[in-house]
Amino acid sequence: MKFLYLLAQSAYFWLAGIIYLISMEGIALYYQYVLQFYPCALCVQVRAWVVGAIFSSVAGLYFRSNFWIRFLCLTLTLACISGGLYTSNYAWGVENGTVISTCSMGAGFPGFMPLDEWLPFFFGANGPCGQSPIMWFGFSMVESLLVTLGLPCVVLALLWFLHFPHAVASYVKLMRAQ
Hints:
This protein is mainly alpha-helical. It has a single domain, classed as Up-down Bundle (Bromodomain-like), CATH 1.20.1550. It contains seven helices and no strands. α2 runs antiparallel to α3 (41-62) and α3 runs antiparallel to α4 (67-96).
């Protein structure tokens, strides 16, 4: 367990996560611009979650030696990956007909952060929901997202739970000192 706790302090851990997430975005862009499979609203929302995880992972890499900022970065990265996993699960339900959705051509970003207007080449939703392309091993892109986001979510949750007791103990120590 100590190895896993120390893993979050390693630059290699954060770099591997950043490379992994950037690779996911690169594959999505390859499918969009080379293979002409345009993303739906749910797909670009997953992209936004992954970009959020990239930013929090970059901060985690830079501040990995500071416990509180590392804990915050683990929390934010876990939240972003979980958000992407939730959205992917919803998209999987739409794809399989278990969720009835009125998925429109718009990306559905909030008015204060219209990513589809700011970066339409990256966050523009031009494809229909429920029709993701087939990828490796016969999985659809949405099914692949469930795996490629699910595994990091489990690892990050484990690391977060290993950091949590230290956070509580540190907070209690701080409160007693006052």
